[in-house]
Amino acid sequence: MRVAIAGAGLAGLACAKYLTDAGHTPIVLESRDVLGGLVAAWKDKDGDWYETGLHAFFGAYPNMLQMLKELGIEDRLQWKEHTLIFNQPEKPGTLSRFDVPDIPAPFNVIASILRNNDMLTWEQKIRFAIGLFPAVVRGQKYVEQMDKYSFLEWLSRHGVGERVSSDVFIAACKALTFINPEEVSATILLTALNRFLQERYGSKIAFLDGSPTERLCQPIVDYVTQRGGEVRLNAPLKEIVLNDDGSVKHFAIRGLNGAPDYIETADLFVSAMSVDVLKAILPTSWKKIEYFQKLDGLEGVPVINLHLWFDRKLTDIDQLLFSRSPLLSVYADMSNTCREYANPDRSMLELVLAPAKDWIDKSDEEIIKATIAELKKLFPEDLGGENPATLLKYHVVKTPKSVYKATPGRQEYRPAQVSPIGNFYLSGSYTMQRYLGSMEGAVLSGKLTAQAIAEAHSAFQSSSMQTLTRPPATNAATA
Ligand SMILES: Cc1cc2nc3c(=O)[nH]c(=O)nc-3n(C[C@H](O)[C@H](O)[C@H](O)COP(=O)(O)OP(=O)(O)OC[C@H]3O[C@@H](n4cnc5c(N)ncnc54)[C@H](O)[C@@H]3O)c2cc1C
């Protein structure tokens, strides 16, 4: 079957990959001139990469890891020491580590928490462990039920004091969802903690060895095109044109640079665009259908990604760091963490600014000024002393609507990949799958769409489709 997919983010590309495995012919239509959506990256005039987001991969990403293996590129992930590192704002320039020993889960994570006395008191550790007990025993079902609470509400229901949320979980919430614990659904943190507690290497972090566009997305495109599929850039979906019965007749694609609009016909159609774009171009007659009405409950959250090049090395730490700054979220010195960005003499800090709602409309200069003021607290010797490092250049990448905003109650609005329209499917990390708004969630959603198409329209079942890493049956909320 010929399947037209709008959007070449990870969900659209993964969907295309698994459709080719199932013997179908995907045509991916991407509006921009760059692959990857939220993982897109660009080279500047000096040949330096800058990205939409600082992206960390986790051991608890089974579908991403399997896909990389199937593409023969799993060696592109650079695995780091098994540890989570937090800055200590009250002691500028110092770090607190949760070192995870190489023993079976959940004892490895428990040991890392018990051994860290900088950030949690014994009373807080015990209360938190008791609070987590139902999540460990009752699994994902309990985790989904907690979507009615914000994470802060969940913590206070379990008697865990304010300090825990201010010390550890603000950093975790900002890193996972770009919002603070009082806004974020408890399901998000509990899902992540559950995976980390159940998988020995679940919380182990890896960085890609270069830009996601070249090192992750391009191999998927090569795989798809070598098997008869197509990935077309500069091909924005303008309209979903319907038959009289409400099914999709064709995609109308906007012609760019004076070229006329054109029609893309196919047997089946997939939207792998962000939820905000889909809502904007949804056909009028579909707006009466409950499945599509629910999309109104979802909206992308703003986030800003920053890149700062300095004239000297600020750190030799080869890992993701949680800044615990009110302005910033996670950051890394990419000159240490990423092979293609390596530089033994100069640092390139890549940082996520979140929550970004008050900053998204500010100028790049204002954002960088505020960032440098925060960085002086993280690197007091190199940026705050008498001989501070010089900022050579910077790039600011703003995304006003990124992953869906994971506030309480959103789970029930996340749609299944199979829509009520017979020849139309959805993919995207916002669709229902257990890995939330992440790269793993995007890949899994694309795979679930391809699997649903393969089941409904069998061409042939390939081995990689048979080894699909499905969510466990206990997860009632997954497709
Ligand atoms: C700053 C930042 C940091 C992040 N950090 C991490 C991390 O550390 N770990 C992690 O796992 N995840 C992280 N994420 C989340 C992750 O990047 C996303 O969940 C994932 O990439 C989403 O993929 P997607 O394919 O679902 O959507 P998208 O990437 O949004 O893809 C949608 C695609 O549709 C295209 N499109 C839009 N309109 C049209 C149209 N009209 N016609 C055709 N195409 C169209 C877009 O251009 C885009 O390519 C981060 C995201 C950001 C922004």
From TrEMBL:
PROSITE patterns: PROKAR_LIPOPROTEIN. SUPFAM superfamilies: FAD/NAD(P)-binding domain (SSF51905). Its main location: membrane. Residues 10-453 form the Amine oxidase domain. It comes from the Bacteria. GO terms for biological process: carotenoid biosynthetic process; response to herbicide. It is a peripheral membrane protein. Coiled coil: none annotated. It catalyses: 2 a plastoquinone + 15-cis-phytoene = 9,9',15-tri-cis-zeta-carotene + 2 a plastoquinol. Pfam families: Amino_oxidase. Keywords: Carotenoid biosynthesis, Cell membrane, Herbicide resistance, Membrane, Oxidoreductase. Belongs to the carotenoid/retinoid oxidoreductase family. PANTHER family: 15-CIS-PHYTOENE DESATURASE, CHLOROPLASTIC_CHROMOPLASTIC (PTHR42923:SF45), PROTOPORPHYRINOGEN OXIDASE (PTHR42923). This is Phytoene dehydrogenase. The lineage of its organism: Bacteria, Bacillati, Cyanobacteriota, Cyanophyceae, Nostocales. The gene is pds.
